[in-house]
């Protein structure tokens, strides 16, 4: 993991944990895709928590000088996608996480334990 990717992932993970994210996961997708190095996936228990988690990630990464290239889905609060070039943060509602099952879709990537960050 590059130093920048590691720092960004650590900051985003801490922000998600601070907002009581459910089951945060990190997937290294460098070997299977060129869209980013890492996915950070978590879910909230309701729309308000999903939005609070997205706000927390954006605020924490912004304070560290990292601005998102794009944020999608905030208004619905069902699946917020936050593209930071090197990492992409996916924040789901519980139902959407089960439905889209990114962990299965990206199973060719390598899951990294949060404590490895």
**What would you call the structural class?**
alpha+beta
Separation of the first and last Cα atoms? 9 Å
**Main β-sheet, in a few words?**
6 strands, mixed
CATH topology, which one?
Answer: Beta Polymerase, domain 2
CATH architecture heading = 2-Layer Sandwich
Helix content: 25-40%
User: Mean pLDDT, nearest integer?
Assistant: 93
What's the CATH class label?
Answer: Alpha Beta
Rough shape? globular
Structural key phrases:
117 residues; 4 helices; 6 strands; 38% helix; alpha+beta; six-stranded mixed sheet; Beta Polymerase, domain 2
Write a concise synopsis of the structure shown:
By secondary structure, this protein is α+β, with helices and mostly antiparallel strands. It contains four helices and six strands, in the order αββαβββααβ.
Tell me what you see in this structure.
The N and C termini lie close together (9 Å). This protein is globular. The chain is built from four helices and six strands, in the order αββαβββααβ. The longest helix has 17 residues, at 47-63. A six-stranded mixed β-sheet has the order 3-4-5-2-1-6. The protein has helices spanning 3-18, 47-63, 94-100, 102-105; strands at residues 22-28, 38-44, 70-72, 79-83, 87-93, 110-112. It has one domain (3-116): Beta Polymerase, domain 2 (2-Layer Sandwich), CATH 3.30.460.10. By secondary structure, it is α+β, with helices and mostly antiparallel strands.
């Amino acid at each position: 993991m590059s130093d920048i990717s590691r720092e960004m992932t650590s900051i985003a993970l801490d922000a998600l944990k601070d907002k009581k994210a459910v089951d945060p996961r990190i997937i290294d997708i460098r070997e299977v895709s060129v869209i980013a190095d890492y996915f950070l996936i978590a879910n909230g228990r309701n729309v308000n928590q999903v939005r609070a988690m997205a706000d927390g990630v954006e605020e924490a990464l912004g304070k560290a000088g990292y601005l998102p290239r794009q944020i999608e889905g905030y208004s619905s609060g069902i699946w917020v996608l936050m593209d930071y070039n090197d990492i992409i943060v996916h924040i789901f509602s519980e139902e959407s996480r089960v439905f889209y099952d990114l962990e299965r879709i990206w199973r060719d990537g390598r899951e990294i334990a949060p404590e490895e960050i």
